[in-house]
Amino acid sequence: MERETSIGKKADEFLQMFRKGEEFTQELLKENERLRFKLAQLEDAVERSGDEAKVRLYEERIKVTEDELNSLKERFRQVEEENKDFAAKYVEVEDENNNLANLYVASYQLHSTLDFNEVLRIVLEIVINLIGAEKFAVLLMEEKTNELIPVGAEGLAISDVPKVRFGEGIIGTAAREGESYFSENIHNNKGSNSMENPIVCIPLKIKEHVIGVIAIYSLLIQKKKFSNVDYELFNLLAGHAATAIFSSRLYTQSERKLTTIQSFLDMLKEKPRR
After folding, report:
1. What is the model's pTM?
2. Is the residue at 174 inside a domain?
3. Spatial separation of the C-alpha atoms in residues 155 and 157, rounded to whole Å
4. FRET label pair with 266: which of 54, 74, 114, 230, CA 20 to 30 Å apart?
5. pLDDT in tens, 215-258
6. CATH number of the domain encompassing residue 233
């Protein structure tokens, strides 16, 4: 009997504890529901009252994004300009390399032969292809008459190029002073005496001795101005062309004299006819 009473007491205690646990669980569920409801109210309040703040925030973010985009566009523009500069410099370097190669080839060709006509042809080709001259003439000094005599021309008949007295006019003055002449407007040569008024005049010199002149009267239409390499070519012509022409001329004259002497010796060696 006492044992049954003890068991019943423990059962009651367990039921009480279970009921308390159930009540506590119910209170937790209610509190959780209350908190969820409160959270929903707060979120709704924030949603209603925060529209203007959100708009400002979005506007600020848009402005920052636009600033970043403009910054990227500006950087892209700078990079594009730099690429254009690099491309232009690359083309310029390529042109300089080609020009140096042309200078080397021209110099080599000038000294590759002692035939006067061949040297004169090479000089004409250099002036046409490398400088871009359309009409020009080569005049050489004749010591006996003190005149510059045309010996080669391109774009005009050699008979149309007048002889020039040493020291007279643009051509004669350039020959006397040994200084190159350049017209202020390289595409302005419409005067009636154009053959006496070249746009460029290059004296051919061996040291300080002038042996002739290259007179340029007009340039090809695509030739807008002279570049640095053109002036290098003018210097090349002033020195190397002069040396080549002078050497080939002496060689040709000596060959003619040698041929004449040889012919005379051959005549002397012939046995007299009976």
Report:
1. 0.60
2. yes
3. 7
4. 114
5. 999 988 888 788 777 787 788 778 888 888 888 888 877 766 66
6. 3.30.450.40
